Hints:
The chain is of the alpha+beta class. It is about 30% helix and about 35% strand.
Amino acid sequence: MEKASMIYEGKGKKLYNTSHPDQVIAEFKDDLTAFNAEKKGNEAGKGALNCQISTEIFKLLEAEGIKTHFIKQLDEKNMLCKRVSIIPIEVVTRNIATGSLSKRLGIKEGSVLPFSLVEFYYKDDALGDPIINDEHAILLKCANSQEELEFLKETAREINEILRSFFDGKGLNLVDFKLEFGKDSEGNILLADEISPDSCRFWDKKTNEKLDKDRFRQDLGNVKMAYEEVLRRILN
Ligand code: TMP
Ligand code: ASP
């Protein structure tokens, strides 16, 4: 499948049309951004790592019955996907407190949450992706109904159970992660975007070493080595 015109360039990926009206190509970029792109960087090979990590995770989720936009990996950093229109909600699931949760609510960094917390953020760069509740999501027409929101939450929880147990077996704690969903031409809601160390937090179970984009956000160094380690563990 060949790339046709570019549809959109995001912070982490470029999306291209193809000759098939219902299929697009996602090209994973080496760029890294944080804090709503206030901080910018580039890590050669990061795009390829995220493409492969996302491929493995989408395959795992599909095998477990989750409907995703993934069709196949085309090459190092290109993925063929079903065309969807993205629901403008970032669905964040958290197992361990850190990041904006600790900052906003004062919950101690590293405390294990008594239950997995699912949150919605409004996907709008100009507004800095603010946290929203269900009523905001309906008001903003992000979703058509409460049922759709419940579906997003339920699916996020299901994905959390699958991934948490998978990564636990790889010696990693899945601390938190962000999902995006989209609707295909028939209105089916599919898991979309990517699942990678850009969109998840992984801590080594033994050492608590951070193996994700926090290494870039917090200037910890060895960003690429961390992503390579995540891929190595996924494949082992
Ligand atoms: P947060 O603690 O900064 O709110 O991040 C929660 C999770 O969501 C974390 O795994 C990183 C991911 N995330 C994104 O993928 N994109 C974003 O824009 C933000 C803010 C977080
Ligand atoms: N992805 C967001 C950005 O580029 C924020 C983040 O992941 O920290 O700014």
